[in-house]
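stage 2 :: seqdesign
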C-alpha cells in the first residue's frame, strides 16, 4: 500500500511510476480550488489491505479522481483511493451487466466494454472521472429518457466502517439509499452496472439558437434527440449539442436549420473561444457511443481546465420558469461565466439523487476561476431558483442554506438511519455530510 503524508513535503518519486507532480497534485482537487485537509492519502493495492486500513483508522474517506469542486470528498482525517486496486471489467452477457473496479475511469471502462460489444446507457460530459466518485454524487449526462450514471448501478461491493466487505444488489431493501451515498456508507471497491449492446452516435452542433426559442420550445428541443445540451454564455453565444443514436439502416442527415439555429460549419468547443481539439468528433460523423456522448475526449483536458462549476437541478415542470429566472440575471452572470449548459435527466428512486422522484433540467454554470467574483452571483442565482426546489449538484459549488438543501431530499431520514447502520461512529463523516445531511 502506498501512503502519502500530506503534512510534509511530498517525497521524491517513492513510486517509480509516479512523478513528483502527480504526488503533490493529490493535495488539491482537479480544479485546484480546494486543498484537502487530510493528513494522508492511502492507495491500497488489495481489498484486504483496504479492509484492514478502514477498520483501524478513526476518520477516513474515499477519494475518487478529485473532480468535485465542493468539499464533498474532503476530511481532516485520512483519504483512501481505490485507483490501484486490481483493475476488473467482467461482463455477464446473460445478465447484461458489467462488474468493474470502482476506481476505474469511465473512459477506460468504456473502451474495454465497447471492444466486447457493450455500452453504458449514458456518460457525463467528460470520461476522466472514476466510476465510484461519479456514482456517489449522481453525476449525469443529458437526455429526457436517460437516468443519471448512478441509475445504471445494479450492485455494489463496499467496505463498511468495521472493515467488513458487504455486497448489495438492486432488489435488496435500502439499495436505493446506498448508491448515491456521498462516500458516507463506506469505501466502494466494485460496481456492477447495467449494459446495453454497443451503439453508434452522431453529434451535430447548431449555432445561434435563439434564447427565446429555448424558453418557448423547451420540451421540443430536449426531446429532439437521445441527448441534447444547450450552451449559452448569456452574452450572445448560444449553441446546442444534439446527439442521435444511429440505429440500423439510419439514413439520418441533419437539417441545415433547426429551431431557428444554423448547423455549425465546423467543430465547436462548448466553451466559446476555446479550440475544438479536445472535443469529441462532431459534424454528424457516426462513432462509438463513448466517443460521442461525452463532449470532451479522454486524452485531453476537459472543459476549459481553469474554472469553477455549479449546477442546480429543477423539476421538469419548473424548467422553463427556472430558465427564465436565470435569464433575468444574464447581465450579472455573464462577466464571471465561461459557459452555462442546460441538460435534462430522467427521474429515479435513488434517495440522495438530484433527480429523485422527478425528471429534471440541469442548469449548469462553468465559472471563471474567480471565487470572489462568483460568490455573490451564485447567491443571486440560488435565491432566484429557490421557489423551484432546485437541488444543487453535490460535487459542484453552492451556498444554499443547509436546512433548505435537507428539505429538498424527502428520504434524508432514511439515509441517516442507513448511515447509523453502516457507520455508527461516523468514521466516514466529514464537514460536508454534517452540514447537508445533519
Ligand atoms: C471538468 C469537469 C466536468 C464535469 N462534468 C460533469 C457532468 O457532465 N455531469 C455531472 O453530473 N458532473 C460533472 N462533473 C462533476 C463530477 O462528475 C463529480 O463531482 C464527480 O463526483 C467526480 O467524481 P470523482 O471520481 O472525481 O470523485 P471525487 O470528487 O474524488 O469524490 C466525490 C465523492 O465520491 C466519493 N467517492 C469517491 N470514490 C469512492 C469510493 N470508492 N467509495 C465510496 N465513495 C467514493 C467521495 O467520498 C466523494 O464523496 C464534472 C467535473 C469536472 C471537473
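stage 2 :: out
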Amino acid at each position: 500500500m502506498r501512503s502519502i503524508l500530506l503534512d510534509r513535503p511530498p517525497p521524491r518519486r517513492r513510486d517509480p511510476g509516479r512523478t513528483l507532480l502527480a504526488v503533490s497534485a493529490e493535495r488539491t482537487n482537479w480544479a485546484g480550488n480546494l486543498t484537502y485537509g487530510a493528513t494522508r492519502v492511502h492507495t491500497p493495492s488489495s481489498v484486504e489491505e483496504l479492509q484492514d486500513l478502514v477498520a483501524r483508522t478513526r476518520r477516513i474517506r474515499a477519494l475518487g479522481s478529485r473532480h468535485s469542486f465542493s468539499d464533498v470528498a474532503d476530511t481532516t482525517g485520512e483519504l483512501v483511493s481505490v485507483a490501484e486496486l486490481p483493475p476488473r471489467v467482467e461482463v455477464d452477457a446473460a445478465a447484461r451487466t458489467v462488474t468493474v473496479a470502482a476506481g476505474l475511469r469511465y473512459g477506460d471502462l468504456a473502451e474495454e466494454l465497447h471492444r466486447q460489444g457493450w455500452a453504458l446507457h449514458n456518460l457525463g460530459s467528460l470520461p476522466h472521472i472514476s466510476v465510484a466518485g461519479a456514482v456517489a454524487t449522481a453525476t449525469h449526462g443529458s437526455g429526457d429518457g436517460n437516468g443519471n450514471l448512478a441509475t445504471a448501478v445494479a450492485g455494489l461491493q463496499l467496505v463498511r466502517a468495521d472493515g467488513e466487505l458487504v455486497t448489495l444488489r438492486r432488489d435488496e431493501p435500502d439499495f436505493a439509499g446506498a448508491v448515491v451515498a456521498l462516500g458516507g456508507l463506506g469505501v466502494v471497491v466494485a460496481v456492477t452496472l447495467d449494459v446495453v449492446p454497443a451503439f453508434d452516435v452522431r453529434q451535430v452542433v447548431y449555432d445561434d439558437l435563439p434564447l427565446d426559442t429555448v424558453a418557448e420550445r423547451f420540451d421540443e428541443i430536449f426531446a429532439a434527440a437521445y441527448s441534447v445540451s444547450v450552451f449559452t454564455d448569456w452574452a450572445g453565444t448560444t449553441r446546442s449539442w444534439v446527439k442521435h443514436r444511429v440505429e440500423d439502416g439510419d439514413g439520418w442527415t441533419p437539417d441545415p436549420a433547426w429551431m431557428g439555429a444554423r448547423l455549425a460549419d465546423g467543430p465547436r468547443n462548448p466553451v466559446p473561444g476555446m479550440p475544438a481539439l479536445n472535443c469529441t468528433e462532431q459534424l454528424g460523423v457516426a462513432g462509438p457511443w463513448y466517443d460521442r456522448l461525452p463532449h470532451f475526449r479522454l486524452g485531453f483536458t476537459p472543459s476549459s481546465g481553469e474554472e469553477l462549476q455549479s449546477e442546480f437541478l429543477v423539476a421538469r415542470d419548473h424548467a422553463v420558469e427556472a430558465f427564465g429566472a436565470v435569464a433575468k440575471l444574464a447581465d450579472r452572470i455573464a462577466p464571471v461565466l465561461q459557459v452555462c449548459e442546460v441538460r435534462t435527466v430522467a427521474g429515479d428512486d435513488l434517495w440522495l439523487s438530484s433527480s429523485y422522484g422527478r425528471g429534471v433540467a440541469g442548469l449548469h454554470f462553468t465559472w471563471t476561476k474567480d471565487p470572489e467574483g462568483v460568490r455573490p452571483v451564485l447567491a443571486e442565482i440560488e435565491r432566484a431558483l429557490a421557489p423551484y426546489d432546485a437541488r444543487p449538484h453535490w460535487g459542484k459549488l453552492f451556498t444554499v442554506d443547509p436546512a433548505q438543501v435537507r428539505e429538498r431530499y424527502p428520504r434524508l431520514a432514511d439515509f441517516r438511519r442507513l448511515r447509523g447502520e453502516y457507520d455508527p461512529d461516523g468514521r466516514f463523516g466529514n464537514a460536508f455530510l454534517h452540514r447537508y445531511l445533519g
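stage 3 :: structure notes
- Residues 89-198 form a domain with the Uridine Diphospho-n-acetylenolpyruvylglucosamine Reductase; domain 3 fold (CATH 3.30.465.10).
- The first strand starts at residue 2 and ends at 5.
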